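[Automated response] Your request has been received and processed.

Submitted sequence:
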Amino acid sequence: MIKLVNLDKYYKNKFIKTYVLRNINLEINEGEFVSIMGPSGSGKSTLLHILGMLDSPSEGEYYFFNEPVHKMSERQHSELHKNHIGFVFQSYHLIDELTVFENLETPLLYQKVKSSERKAMVADMLDRFKMVAKKDLFPNQLSGGQQQLVAIARAIISNPKIILADEPTGNLHTNQGKEIMDTLKKLNDEGKTIIQVTHSEENAKYGNRIINLMDGWIEK
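Generated structure:
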């Protein structure tokens, strides 16, 4: 599903290259739940953003279902991201001025889904995540755990091939965090491929594989 070959990410300052990722070789199969771990500054979030096509590698190759992402234009990246990737962030990234219903509807608007179909898909998500009663509330009227559940629902509403989660429980209490991880595990059990970045060994255990990063390298 995903294959990275000799991938580097660095920033140039005159003659000096500052490496964030070095010589990353990685394969992720469809249906896996992969946890990426490592100390702050090890390159975890950068790797996730490259996988999600929100950032580009400096060198190396990235294949997504055998398609060479590294040869694509920004517009093609954007299309792939929009149609196949769901992103869940630590800080939720909900739109404050929109209700829960409208936040869930947003990805479908980008995909030009018809109005009647959009409403049905949002209703299904609200029902699935037991949030029907909260559909007209704004994000600041929800708890952190509820906001993250809305963020997960928004990430999966357009049925992406893969969910990328960047510290999805980082701002949550223990019980809320467990609910979020249980939700991601259930999605994985249903066949969704999930890649999460986490500091938590407890959360990493939800995955079937752990990748450890240190100073931009994958530890063997």
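Summary generated for your ticket: The chain has a mean pLDDT of 93. The chain has one domain: 2-218.
If you did not submit this request, please reply to this message.
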